[in-house]
Amino acid sequence: MLKRILFTLVLFFGLSLAAQAGERVVIGIAPSLTATLNIIAKQQGYFSQQGVDAEIRVIESGGSKAVAMMLNDEIDISESAIFSLVFNSFNRRDFKIYTQVSISGNDNMIVARKDKGIRKITDLKGKRVGASKEGFSRYVLDLMLLNAGVDSKKIHLVFEAPDRLYQMLSSGELDAACLFGGLIDKATKNLKDNSVLFLDEKLVRVSVVHTAKTRTFERNPELFTRILKAYIKAEEYVKKNPDAALKTVVEYLKLDMGNAQKVWKPKMVHVALEQSLIKDMENLAQWQIDTGLQNNPKIPNYLDFIHFRNLMEVDPKRVTIIH
What we know:
- By secondary structure, this protein is α/β, with parallel strands linked by helices.
- Helix content is 46%, strand content 19%.
- Strand 6 (128-131), helix 6 (136-147) and strand 7 form a beta-alpha-beta unit.
- The longest helix has 20 residues, at 2-21.
- It starts with a helix and ends in a 9-residue tail after the last helix.
C-alpha cells in the first residue's frame, strides 16, 4: 500500500514538473530589435503560459547562421530575414516559414572608417568593403551603392561571416562593412570617433520570419500553435508598453540604446503571413539569379515554403497570402 502511494506521488509530481517545465524548443535569433517578440515572450512569461520551454539562443553571426543551424538540426527554429531562405530554396525543399515576426524598413548600415578618407557613400570607390555573401547585408549594400550611383565593380568586395567582418573592420583590413544590430554597436564603440554610418531605412522592406524543418511541423504541429499565441501576447504587450519593451530588448541583447532608438518602431513587430512576403521572396530570388548567386534560372514557387495551418487556426485574419 505504501509503495502504491509513493508511486502515485512520484507520478503526480513528475507530471506536474513536466507540465511546469513545458515542451522544450530552441529558437535562434540575431542580436537585433527584430527579435523583440521572442524576448518579450520569454521575459514576460508568455511562453511558459503556453506550456513552452523556449531557449532563446542569440546567434552573433546573425540570421543566416541561424538558418544554417536550423537546417543542420542544431536548433529547432530560426529567426532571420528572408535572404538566406531564398538562397537555400533553390536547392532544398525541407523547410517552411510559419510566421513573420517583424516587418520594417532597412536597419542594415554601412559602417566606414574615417581614417580611410570616407565621409560619404561615393567615397567607397576603390575601397575594401565587406558584406555577408549569403546574407541580407549584401543585398542592402548593392542597393545602397546603386542609389548612390556607385558601380559595385568599382569597389573591392570582401565576403565573410558578419562577426569576421566586424573584426576586419576594427583591425583596418576593411575600409567599410555592411552590418546589422549588435555588430553595428560593437563597431562604432570600437572605432569611436573614427566611424561614419550610412543608413537608408526606406531602401527596402525587411521581413523577418520564423522557419523550421518540415519534419518538425509533422512531429509536433500543436507546438507552433502555442508559440504563435505567445507571440501575439507579446505583440499586444509591445503596443501597450513600447518604451518598456525597447528597454527590455536592449538590456537583454546588450545593445546601444542610442542606435536602437534610431530604428525602433513598435509597429514593426507583427505576427502575420502577408501577401507581400511572396513578392519579396520572388524579387530576392531574381536578384540572386541576376548577380550569379544562383545557377538555376527558375524561381521556386514560394507558396510551397509557407506553413499556413497554425496561424490560420490561431487568427486567420493575420494571413493575407492567397493560397
